[in-house]
Amino acid sequence: MSDLRQLYQETILDHHKRPRNFGTLERPTNHAEGHNPLCGDTINVTLQIIDDKVADVRFEGSGCAISQASASMMTAAVKGKSRAEVEALFKQFHALVAEDGQGAPNEELLDKLVVFGGVKEFPMRVKCAILAWHTLRAALSRSGETVTTE
């Protein structure tokens, strides 16, 4: 097994078994819900935005290891970032997992999130990986709609 594939598996399992920032904020300024009807993944993202930065973020939900690990790693990656920085990270993550013609992702910006690069080899799992990110984006925009991957 390649080193990257092993790191991918270890990282996904670690964040699935011990998710970071799991729970809900008592007084969120923003929130959104997401659902992947294809496999049943659900997520709720709560945020505290202060001075246009993500001061705190939490998620709750259930689903496969990829969706839960993606949410866990996403919360760690966006804490302390501005809306613009979160949007840039969203675009890079989406390019990494969903071959969408945006060119090669910036692996330095993605940092530990690069372990999700192997997800695009499994098209059915891409929606699992991006659900949390689309839900975060909806929370930031305060769209009020439930995010769906369909």
- Secondary-structure element pattern, one letter each: HEEEHHHHE
Mean pLDDT: 89
User: Can you tell me the residue ranges where pLDDT is under 50 for at least 5 consecutive residues?
Assistant: none
- Strands of the largest sheet, in order across it? 3-2-1-4
Helix content: 40-55%
Structure write-up:
Strand 1 (30-36) and strand 2 (41-50) form a beta hairpin. This protein is 45% helix and 19% strand. The longest helix has 19 residues, at 123-141. It is built from 5 helices and 4 strands; from the N terminus they run αβββααααβ. The chain has helices at 3-17, 65-78, 83-97, 107-110, 123-141, and strands at 30-36, 41-50, 53-62, 147-148. It has one domain (3-138): Alpha-Beta Complex (Sufe protein. Chain: A), CATH 3.90.1010. The protein is α+β, with helices and mostly antiparallel strands and 150 residues long. Helix 1 (3-17) crosses helix 2 (65-78) and helix 3 (83-97) packs antiparallel against helix 5. A 4-stranded mixed beta sheet has the order 3-2-1-4, covered by helices on one side.
List keywords for this structure.
alpha+beta, 19% strand, globular, 150 residues
